[in-house]
């Protein structure tokens, strides 16, 4: 299936397909846990992700991912 939309954090587009970037997805999971456990704020988590992966994810984008996990029961 060809993908034409915005590329989500943790993925890259190759020939119109989304390919996982395991290092980014692992970093995202680590940060989501730290934010959920109130060890880091959303803003701190967002900055840490950019420092660790070189890719930006806004604090609101991070919140949306955490909220989506909560809705899915993760």
What report would you give on this structure?
This protein is mainly alpha-helical and 74 residues long. The chain has a domain at 22-72. Helices cover 55% and strands 11% of the residues. It contains three helices and two strands, in the order ββααα. The protein has helices at 22-36, 42-53, 59-72, and strands at residues 11-14, 17-20. A two-stranded antiparallel ribbon has the order 1-2. A hairpin with a 2-residue loop joins strand 1 and strand 2 (17-20). The protein starts with 10 loop residues before the first strand and ends with a helix. The model has no long low-confidence stretch (mean pLDDT 92).
Order of helices and strands: EEHHH
Counting helices, strands and paired strands, the structural category is: mainly alpha
Basic shape? globular
Name the helicity range: 55-70%
For the termini, the CA-CA separation is 26 Å
Please give the number of β-strands.
2
Radius of gyration: 13 Å
Query: What's the pLDDT, averaged over the residues?
Result: 92
State the strand order across the main sheet: 1-2
- Unreliable runs: none
Tally of individual helices: 3
Instruction: Sketch the major β-sheet.
Output: 2 strands, antiparallel
Name the beta content range: 5-15%
């Amino acid at each position: 299936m060809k993908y034409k939309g915005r590329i989500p954090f943790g993925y890259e587009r190759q020939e119109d397909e989304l390919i996982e970037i395991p290092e980014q997805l692992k970093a995202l999971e680590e940060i989501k846990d730290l934010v959920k456990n109130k060890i880091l704020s959303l803003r701190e988590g967002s900055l840490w992700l950019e420092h660790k992966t070189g890719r930006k994810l806004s604090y609101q984008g991070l919140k949306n991912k955490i909220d989506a996990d909560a809705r899915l029961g993760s």
